[in-house]
Amino acid sequence: MTWDDDESAGDRRRDPGRRASGREILLQVAGYVGLVTAVVVLVVGAVVAVTVWGVAAKPGGFAAPSASGRGAPLPPVSAAPADGGTEVGAQVEAADDPNELTGSEVAPLVEPEAEAAPVVEGDWLSVVSDATGIPARALSAYALAHISIAAEEPTCGVDWTTIAAIGAVESGHGSHGDSVLGADGLVQPKILGPALDGDGVAAIHDTDGGALDGDVTWDRAVGPMQFIPSTWAQWGADANGDGVADPSQIDDAAYAAARYLCASGPMTTPEGWRAAVFSYNHLDSYVDKVARIANGYADALG
């Protein structure tokens, strides 16, 4: 019995008692190869899809303390000293007849006392800075970012150890090259990454007219946390209250980094933590390095 060519049957059947011809064997092998190829394509496609969506390609890798149940507690803060407000109107003077008082004398104007900004306790900064090697000014920025994001995104779970570890990798806490982190939190001269011109790096044409990075042709990463201008436009923040969101000011940059990380979702599991840090830099080696440094900071404190 040969192959059944009955088209009305819609299939072809082979006599089980007959040995397959060479042509039939080749067809069977081709079918197996096609099946294997399809499976490989599906697997590769899944890996690519995972990478495109920003999930680390090695989700089983280790993570920072915040993802393993031993996250750093909120740093202690104290309110900035207040002076009780500044009086700007005339003082009320004693008078025999209250009707003789002028308007300014009746209602002296006093500027309302501004809400005091939180200040990280000096003793904590001193102890933690000595234990971890993080400069106190940078540590203050990371700690304040932790405090602020915990209030803004309580389910995120990122803490200062992760923010500090990213700051260490990106710029050595604002000390890359000949740059210096000042008492005001500004890094000078500015830390600028290479032009993103497509030569071994992503190609990102200028998006800010050179306002942040001084380059009107290509974008560059800027500041101690290395934000590109287009990302800063979305996540930049004025954390120090000076009215300017500046990627070269470490309070602003650290808080913006925390906001960016939390946009990926909760960081309270190894998978969630790695996905968030992977979104910051799409390299598993980068995620591993940040994890090692963050864990080192936590271990230094016991």
Automatic annotation (TrEMBL):
Q: Where is the Transglycosylase SLT domain?
A: 218-276
What top-level branch of life does the organism fall under?
Answer: Bacteria
- SUPFAM superfamilies documented for this protein: Lysozyme-like
Bilayer-crossing regions: 29-56
Q: Which UniProt keywords apply?
A: Membrane, Transmembrane, Transmembrane helix
What is any one GO biological process for this UniProt entry?
Answer: peptidoglycan catabolic process
Q: Which GO terms describe its molecular function?
A: peptidoglycan lytic transglycosylase activity
Short name of any one Pfam family annotated for the protein: SLT_2
Annotated region Disordered: where? Answer: 64-84
Q: Which PANTHER family match?
A: LYTIC MUREIN TRANSGLYCOSYLASE, MEMBRANE-BOUND LYTIC MUREIN TRANSGLYCOSYLASE B
Its protein name is: Transglycosylase SLT domain-containing protein
Q: Which organism is it from?
A: Agromyces luteolus
